[in-house]
Amino acid sequence: MTELSFTKKFLSTLSSRSIRVNADFCEDARKLPARTPYTLPKTAKPKSKKAPPVSPSDTPSIPTANITLRSLRGTTIIHSLPATPLSTTIISLKHQLSTAAKIPIDKIKLLLKGKVLGDLKTLEEVGVKAGEEEVVVSVMVMGGGKEEGKKGEEGKEEGGQAVVDEAFWGDLKGWLDSRVGKELAVEMVGVFRGGWGAK
């Protein structure tokens, strides 16, 4: 077929068709040449890796510390809590001490390095480090936290002298220092001592 004859045939084919195509024109799928359907290849499943067996030595250990609750003055209180998790809260320690020593929980104050510990703080938050051999937490029993002593011959309660000794005033001053500051704490301790002496 020469180029001239091909061109004539092509032009005659075009002339038989409409020049414009309607906007809603859609080609009849039945007149289209047959096509083989194409399917996506199957993806290979990844091989599952078996997890290695976990030995007891590989399990993460919970950080703990050996805690000892010890009273500063008055009634001797020594309560040991070995291997205590650092996530333990101060209020939990108070509950354990209250149960063991029969002291109302609202009369117990716990101190670490001279600072009063908040009930919602954990041991880790107050500075206790894991693995310490012994952490001594001081216990302060507020007034009315123990049973009233028996009356002596002079009409004074037995053990009353321990309440007003210098250790008591030192503890009170340390507690007030953390609350109101040193200057105001000295003034308040002076007022308390004056009131106690007048009594």
Automatic annotation (TrEMBL):
<feature type="domain" description="Ubiquitin-like">
    <location>
        <begin position="65"/>
        <end position="143"/>
    </location>
</feature>
<dbReference type="Pfam" id="PF17183">
    <property type="entry name" value="Get5_C"/>
</dbReference>
<dbReference type="InterPro" id="IPR024737">
    <property type="entry name" value="Get5_N"/>
</dbReference>
<dbReference type="InterPro" id="IPR049256">
    <property type="entry name" value="Get5_C"/>
</dbReference>
<dbReference type="InterPro" id="IPR000626">
    <property type="entry name" value="Ubiquitin-like_dom"/>
</dbReference>
<dbReference type="Pfam" id="PF12754">
    <property type="entry name" value="Get5_N"/>
</dbReference>
<feature type="region of interest" description="Disordered">
    <location>
        <begin position="36"/>
        <end position="65"/>
    </location>
</feature>
<dbReference type="InterPro" id="IPR029071">
    <property type="entry name" value="Ubiquitin-like_domsf"/>
</dbReference>
<protein>
    <recommendedName>
        <fullName>Ubiquitin-like domain-containing protein</fullName>
    </recommendedName>
</protein>
